[in-house]
Specification:
single chain; alpha/beta
Length: 171
Amino acid sequence: MFKQLFSALVLAAACTPALAIDYVVTRSDDPNPDAIGFPSCRPEGGCSVRQAILASNKRRGADRIILKRATTYTLTRATHSATVDGRSGPLLATDELEIVGTRSDRTRIEWPNNLNHSHSVLVHGLADSHTISPPLKLRNLTIARGRGVTGGCLSTHNGTELGLYGVVIEN
């Protein structure tokens, strides 16, 4: 009897989806996520957009990234590598994600005008994967100055369900 009850509880726990976590972005810069002594992103804040997305990628299940400040979140970690890993180059989201700004005219994620790069701002899904990418939702923000070869500002892979709500995408 005890074994059956224990087995049922283990099975129920394994089948329960992970609860979504809200990551609150409080930094508008783009620090090196590999810097020694640099804290990882915590849900309560203290991280950049890049750090929040990397933290979300480590968890299975839907997460939400909240861009708390009405400001420009500037990406500066350009790379010449063809490998997209999210640590430099475009932001890379690999799991179900919602990114929420305050208003599209007040919250921007962009590359600076004077930076020589050839990256999208945001890539969703893995190009070499044969599975359908999970949903991506963007709300109340502007994505700008992407120069991706295959996507401009936003690049998605493998049938991504993309929801854009109050979003501006501009050159």
